[in-house]
Design goal:
The chain is of the alpha/beta class and about 475 residues long. It has 3 domains: about 15-185 and about 325-335, Rossmann fold (3-Layer(aba) Sandwich), CATH 3.40.50; about 190-320, Rossmann fold, CATH 3.40.50; about 345-475, Rossmann fold (3-Layer(aba) Sandwich). About 35% of the residues lie in helices and about 15% in strands. It has 14 helices and 16 strands. Strands 5-4-3-1-2-11 form a 6-stranded mixed sheet, with helices on both faces. The chain has a 5-stranded parallel sheet with strand order 7-6-8-9-10, sandwiched between helices. α1 links the parallel β1 (about 15-20) and β2 (about 45). α6 packs parallel to α9. The longest helix has 17 residues, at about 160-180.
Length: about 475
């Protein structure tokens, strides 16, 4: 989509920090790219880069989301309809747009956080998702509904939605004219709100130690650091992290004050010996009504020892800095990369000469543009042991081998070694017949691996586009290695 808002994607000092909530599915990629193209000249993205944690699966750290959202200047949301296989039966007696289960509850939850913090926000939603925008908005808030199937077809056909462009332009105009980007450094101060009962002593000790070793200053009891309401709010605004026991109603008034200020919070519930799962009935009324919300990250607080590492994980997650993504192309690469489930590392095997490698260069460039992590020897074109060591290291961590099979491929010693390594270690092979070659590799005779033929009439860019399209499809639809 040609967009007059996109500019050249250059970075300006006055850029706002944008929290971009969107689907990671490939189906919605064109619309995500269109939005980022419009934003890139005026905004940079705040992107979370998770670190390894003690928990076995990727955690859902609401305190981390709150911390990133608190550092953001604006919120941009893209709310598509969920694929049919992810939809659930409607909950007619429930209140709110999520009751239809037609849009992502995680995107909705992030939007509710932005609404809680009253961030300037632009939300593009699919009318088929049954998303319900607020009845009233203000100049810094825009909710725009479209038929996403029609919009995507328009974008892919090279057209543009003029009224959507105008909506974006007006909103960005308000942001750049009326909003000064924040230049705040996240605070290292922490506090806890656990009560003074004898039963809380063990939990309190674990919280203090976990937060202290997790990267914050040694936390203090929140109810001991203020005498007036003004002192309370000054202290809350200065906090980088709060740990609160939401299972104690007597603590709710102070917690509600922290909640209203978007203080990043780890929520513990002293009434549970295990996670409450998908229910939110144990939460204070203020926290209910989000199917992918606070109950997903509620820690049991009946015993301190089992949750020490989980508390420490959350403290470390909030203490980490946020890496901004600057510029149009880096943002595009990120949006492409997010459509690939799991990690990958593509080794490109070929026998192209350094003075005649237009196809390889086009493949590498397109991989980089589309967020595909790849290795190709000219990038590490060094002599001697260094080059060999780097190549061996790249092969060792490769998940896929993209092989450009020219007529002379098997005559190259390096190519034969790379091919043999892929076969021996059962890596996912993607062979392409190039430079007029028509015969597949004899070593794959009988194997269910298709050799894609690239006719000589194709230019390097067109051939590279076909190669990377096949590679993208493979990465988005992983399957057991056929070798």
């Amino acid at each position: 989509m040609t967009n007059p808002l996109a500019g050249n994607g250059s970075v300006r000092q006055s850029q706002a920090s944008a929290y971009f909530s969107h689907s990671w599915g490939a189906l919605n990629l064109p619309i995500n790219l269109m939005l980022w193209q419009a934003l890139a000249a005026d905004c940079h993205l705040l992107i979370d880069q998770p670190d390894p944690v003690a928990e076995p699966s990727q955690p859902y750290f609401i305190s981390r989301i709150e911390s990133v959202m608190r550092q953001a200047d604006v919120f941009v949301g893209c709310v598509p309809r969920l694929p049919v296989e992810k939809q659930r039966p409607a909950v007619r007696e429930a209140v709110g747009d999520w009751r239809f289960h037609l849009c992502s509850p995680f995107i909705l939850f992030e939007l509710r956080l932005a609404e809680r913090g009253d961030l300037p926000r632009f939300v593009l939603y699919d009318r088929a998702s049954r998303f319900q925008p607020p009845a009233m908005t203000s100049p810094h808030v825009r909710y725009v509904g479209r038929d996403f199937q029609e919009l995507q077809a328009l974008i892919e056909g090279g057209g543009q939605d003029q009224s959507l462009v105008q909506e974006l332009e007006q909103w960005l105009g308000w942001v750049t004219t009326n909003y000064t980007p924040r230049r705040t450094t996240p605070s290292g101060r922490a506090a806890y709100l656990l009560g003074d009962t004898a039963g809380a002593a063990e939990l309190r000790s674990a919280v203090i130690e976990a937060v202290d070793t997790g990267g914050f200053e040694r936390p203090q009891a929140l109810d001991h650091v203020f005498h007036t309401d003004a002192e309370l709010y000054v202290n809350l605004r200065s906090l980088g992290l709060l740990v609160v026991d939401v299972g104690r109603p007597e603590l709710w008034p102070l917690y509600h004050a922290a909640h209203s200020l978007m203080v990043p919070t780890v929520r513990v519930h002293s009434g549970f010996n295990s996670d409450p799962g998908a229910t939110d009935c144990a939460l204070p009324l203020l926290l209910r009504g989000h199917p992918a919300g606070y109950q997903k990250d509620l820690l049991p607080g009946a015993t301190a020892e089992p949750i020490f590492e989980r508390l420490q994980d959350r403290a470390k997650a909030v203490a980490r800095g946020v890496r901004p993504v600057l510029g149009l192309q880096p943002g595009r690469r990120l949006l492409y990369a997010r459509t690939f489930p799991g990690s990958h590392y593509v080794f490109i095997s070929h026998d192209e000469r350094l003075d005649n490698r237009a196809l390889v260069d086009a493949v590498v460039r397109r991989c980089e543009e589309h967020g595909i992590v790849c290795w190709e020897y000219a990038v590490e074109n060094r002599s001697g042991e260094v080059w060999r060591r780097n190549m061996d290291a790249a092969l060792a961590k490769a998940t896929h081998v993209l092989a450009l099979l020219s007529p002379g491929y098997e005559q190259s010693t390096g190519c034969r070694e790379e091919w043999a390594f892929a076969l021996e270690h059962r890596l996912r092979l993607l062979p392409f017949l190039t430079h007029g070659r028509t015969k597949p590799s004899v070593e794959l005779r009988g194997e269910k691996i298709a050799h894609e033929h690239l006719p000589p009439a194709l230019g390097p860019e067109e051939a590279a586009a076909r190669i990377v399209a096949t590679l993208e499809n493979t990465l988005r639809n992983p399957a057991p290695t056929a070798v």
